[in-house]
Amino acid sequence: MAVSDMSSCNPLALDNQVCFLLYSASRAVTAAYRPYLAELGLTYPQYLVMLVLWEACATEGEPGCTTGQLCQRLRLDTGTITPLLKRLESAGLVVRGRLPGDERVVWLRLTPEGVRLRERACAIPVSLSAKLGLGLEELDALRAMLSMLERRLLAGVPEQA
Amino acid sequence: MAVSDMSSCNPLALDNQVCFLLYSASRAVTAAYRPYLAELGLTYPQYLVMLVLWEACATEGEPGCTTGQLCQRLRLDTGTITPLLKRLESAGLVVRGRLPGDERVVWLRLTPEGVRLRERACAIPVSLSAKLGLGLEELDALRAMLSMLERRLLAGVPEQA
DNA sequence: TAAATATATATTGCGCACAATATAATTGTA
DNA sequence: TACAATTATATTGTGCGCAATATATATTTA
């Protein structure tokens, strides 16, 4: 009685494509965030960058992180991250400087305003989980499934060799 | 023993965000499709459009569909779809014409070449499901979860009023 | 039938994503 | 110490996504 039995006769049917459900659900979730993030003046990818920086701020030691760490964490490349960071910088949330000792790496730090924004952002996960309407167990199941999926895809990369 | 217990002390932790997992998994899946689609000369969104058109070709009656139906099906707007269709047209896969009887609507039809491409595309779901490495049950569970999520988000839209 | 409204698509502009390439600083090596 | 290779980031170009606006055809209404 699997869901896919409905019209599994056609492997190319749009509704049989998990990829489409993922793509579509992801855009729907981003859209659900949009009005809340707009109040903070952030886009969704910018919000993700801020999440990383807020974490990097909470850790002990010199607060901040490098562009490369950001790319790795969000699995985005510099073509995406560099201009995004420039926009965050001109919004006054982030400062970019080179690492003393290695002039190649860009060291990112939050401005006081960037740090303050965290408090306003705290309300967002609450609003969103209400909007998603999923229970904790469902959320955990979804999380588990998605991270497994991605782990397998990343692990499968070497196959290209 | 929920997954989120790990560091649920911080609701803003990146790894606690289902939204990020979704976003990241979706991009990873798209990336997994990319080499296969490249052989057909298609991007991922173009592939989704072709899936709809191939379906619309299989139905009885006049084959094809309108731009509006495409937008509705893929939940994309004309700003995305119109230029994409022009690219498919200049690639020789699609012809765009106006509907006789209502000159506002654009009627889309596959060219013979567009129809033929379907056969080559048939191999893609097979390759991909191998690459994803998920069993049928897992796939169905994921599908169920994602479509529920999206259904709730779409249903929740009126709340904005 | 003329004007107002609604519908379907197109256009513009901005911000991602990502491939490909470029640049600049660092490290390894002869 | 030069020179090659590596590493970190930046730049360029193409194709989405989406908000806002424009245009053109249909439909409704006065």
- The number of helical runs of chain A is 7
Mean pLDDT of chain A: 90
Strand composition percent of chain A: 5-15%
Radius of gyration of chain A: 19 Å
Protein chain pair with the most extensive contact, residues per chain: A-B, 68 and 68 residues
What is the straight-line distance between the termini of chain A?
A: 39 Å
Regarding quaternary structure, what we see is homodimer
**Class based on secondary structure composition and strand pairing of chain A:** mainly alpha
Describe this structure in words.
The structure is a homodimer of 161-residue chains. The first copy, chain A, has helices spanning 18-40, 44-58, 67-74, 78-90, 112-121, 123-132, 136-155, and strands at residues 65-66, 94-99, 102-110. The first copy, chain A, is mostly helical. Chain A has a three-stranded antiparallel beta sheet with strand order 1-3-2. The model of chain A is unreliable at 1-8 (pLDDT under 50). At the A-B interface, helix 1, helix 2, helix 6 and helix 7 of A face helix 1, helix 2, helix 6 and helix 7 of B. The first copy, chain A, binds a DNA duplex (30 and 30 nucleotides) through helix 1, helix 2, helix 3, helix 4 and strand 3.
